[in-house]
Design brief:
Elements: H1 2-14, E1 20-25, H2 26-32, E2 34-42, E3 47-56, E4 68-79, E5 86-102, E6 110-128, E7 133-144, E8 153-164
Antiparallel strand pairs: 1-2, 1-8, 2-3, 3-4, 4-5, 5-6, 6-7, 7-8
Length: 165
């Protein structure tokens, strides 16, 4: 655990001292029982790059869950209203996802593993408080490109709560 904390600290310090954000998707944590953490770094006041990591904690047979067991999502955001407290943005992302699929319908035997990459778009709004608290809401859709065992569509939905530093 100490090595992971040290590696994350070094990575963040190497990225410079421009505006950065760390966020947790509270909607996924409360509704779907998954954890999604995000890190975002501003390139200019109109654009940023970030990365999200999703870990699904719900059992495989539950009907209301993400298909993916884990997903790493690098993204690029363009902000259309950079000087306002409420910012509207568009996002392009690449979701590298993995999960399991049933081998036979209604067998509850999830033995086909897959890893795929989804390319997609999302839109959203971000509120930035003067004290550094950040709330963003977004929704979008991606399409898996490579595998035949993976789900065709990948959702990108979130309600993030975070901190800008």
């Amino acid at each position: 655990m100490k090595k992971v904390f040290l590696a994350v600290t070094l990575l963040i310090s190497l990225l410079g001292f421009s505006q950065q954000e760390i966020k947790l998707d509270v909607a996924d944590a409360l509704i779907i029982r998954s954890l999604e953490f995000s890190y975002e770094k501003y390139l200019t006041e109109n654009s940023s790059v970030g990365i999200s990591a999703l870990f699904n904690l719900t059992k495989q047979g539950i009907g209301f869950r993400y298909n993916e067991n884990s997903m790493i999502t690098p993204y690029y955001r363009h902000y259309f209203t950079p000087n306002a407290q409420w910012n509207f943005f568009g996002e392009g992302f690449l979701g590298i996802n993995s999960g399991k699929k049933e081998s036979i319908k209604d067998s509850n035997n999830y033995d086909i593993k897959y890893t795929d990459g989804a390319l997609g778009l999302a839109v959203g709004m971000k509120y930035i408080a003067t004290g550094g608290i950040v709330i963003d809401v977004y929704g979008g859709l991606g399409r898996n490109l490579f595998g035949s065992d993976s789900a065709i569509l990948v959702p990108r939905i979130g309600l993030n709560l975070g901190w800008r530093f």
